[in-house]
Design goal:
The complex is a heterodimer. Chain A is mainly alpha-helical. In chain A, α5 crosses α8. Chain A is elongated. Chain A folds into two domains: 112 residues, no CATH class; 134 residues, no CATH class. Helices cover 70% and strands 8% of the residues of chain A. Chain A has a three-stranded antiparallel sheet with strand order 1-2-3. The model of chain A has no long low-confidence stretch (mean pLDDT 89). In chain A, 46% of the residues are buried. Chain B is mainly α. Chain B has one domain. Helices cover 85% and strands 0% of the residues of chain B. Chain B has six helices and no strands. The chains are: A mainly alpha, B mainly alpha.
């Protein structure tokens, strides 16, 4: 009985690692809950009680009438969205659920799935492309797109180098919005003919928590009210910080 | 709306989806799918806007079609639906409306700011509602099929 319990604890700890990593990669709350529950049943649990919100995971795995294991995990690092890693971890959990995999093998597969997935060049390229494309999309000219793309590179640099060193995303959004706002306003002041608003919109697309906000509302609509409300409040604060940063920049330059 | 403008928007919308696919680290083979998703989403939105002249309804329809597209292509590609859904949905994100809300607050045009603020919320609600709608129907249908099988 004690041995079974220790084994179960070891398994559940790996399952929580996977849940934490999924959350960090940008998975939805109910995907994380679902993944942990399915893996538990595949391991042989009689009952799985999983509760996930964006900042913590609580799981109780019932092995028999009188024997159960509970683990909780606090999630601190939001991390960057990484859909390649998400898909890999998803595959590992599926394979485990199909059976025939030991906990040792699961650990190995999971470690393989978490190795870095992309080069910085792709991130920079993506940021420049997205900012440039959206500046034109919202009505800018080709030159506006090029300037937006240039500042997109700066945003990517800030996200990679600065965001880890600041206490939280709120401060990061405030500072990066201020820096980008100053940069774009000054550029538009000295180079006539640029559309300041279109350039800023292109760059804002990289910073606004549009996806997180949409996900939050969807979480609320599909029944994960607690997780959804938390994230919604978070995203509104981020958007407020962005607006604050830009406003200060506007006031200084104009 | 001018044809040239429509083509430019659909093209740059798709490019924007490609940009975000790179940022969100999609597999290279999934990037064309995300680009197509972005183009479809914005195309449907413009069509919807043309017929209904209502931003909320148009983005709701676009979000529904986008989510269906993502669910189906994710099934074919055997990958989680979010992976394709999020980059395809990007052109609907109201970056412009949010920006004009902020800039009008700064220049003290509170009437205009309020107008754009409401627009931003309408977009966000419509997208979320569209996603939730498809998700609900999708789950129900899958469960019914699984029960019968």
């Amino acid at each position: 009985m004690e041995k079974a319990r220790a084994d179960a604890q070891e398994f559940l700890s790996v399952a929580l690692d996977m849940g934490e990593e999924l959350m960090a990669c940008g998975a939805e709350v109910n995907r994380v809950e679902d993944t942990i529950a399915r893996m538990g049943f595949a391991y042989g649990a009689k009952e799985m009680n999983v509760f996930v919100i964006t900042t913590s995971i609580v799981v109780t795995m019932g092995l028999s009438e009188s024997n159960s294991v509970t683990l909780t995990r606090r999630i601190n690092t939001p991390g960057g969205i990484d859909f390649r890693k998400l898909a890999r971890i998803n595959t590992v959990s599926r394979d485990f659920c199909h059976g025939g995999m030991t906990v040792e093998q699961l650990k190995e597969e999971f470690e393989k799935a978490t190795c870095p997935t992309t080069t910085p060049i792709r991130m920079y390229l993506g940021s420049a492309l997205a900012a440039g494309a959206f500046a034109v999309f919202f009505g800018g000219k080709v030159w506006d797109g090029l300037v937006a793309a240039l500042f997109g590179l700066l945003i990517c640099f800030l996200q990679r180098e600065l965001s880890g060193k600041l206490p939280n995303l709120l401060v990061f959004n405030l500072i990066s919005a201020f820096l980008i706002g100053m940069g774009v306003c000054l550029t538009a002041k000295f180079i006539p003919g640029l559309n300041l608003d279109k350039i800023l919109i292109g760059d804002i697309m990289l910073l606004i928590p549009g996806i997180a906000m949409t996900n939050a509302i969807r979480d609320i609509l599909v029944g994960d009210t607690v997780a959804g409300t938390m994230r919604l409040v978070e995203t509104i604060m981020w958007a407020g910080a962005l607006a604050g940063g830009f406003m200060v920049a506007f006031w200084i330059v104009w | 709306m001018e044809t040239k403008l429509i083509i430019i928007q659909i093209l740059t919308g798709a490019l924007g989806s490609v940009g975000f696919s790179l940022i969100y680290r999609l597999k290279t083979i999934h990037i064309p799918l995300a680009a197509l998703g972005g183009a479809i989403t914005w195309g449907v939105y413009l069509l919807g806007l043309n017929f209904t002249e209502n931003i909320f309804v148009a983005s709701l329809i676009a979000a529904v079609i986008c989510t269906l597209y993502a669910e189906i292509s994710a099934k074919v590609q055997k990958t989680p639906a979010t992976v394709l859904l999020i980059p395809s949905m990007i052109p609907l994100i109201p970056g412009g409306a949010l920006y004009y809300t902020m800039s009008n607050i700064v220049s003290r045009e509170l009437e205009t700011a309020w107008y754009f603020g409401r627009l931003t919320i309408q977009y966000a609600l419509a997208i979320a509602l569209g996603m939730a709608l498809v998700w609900t129907v999708w789950t129900t249908v899958t469960r019914v099929i699984q029960k019968e099988a």
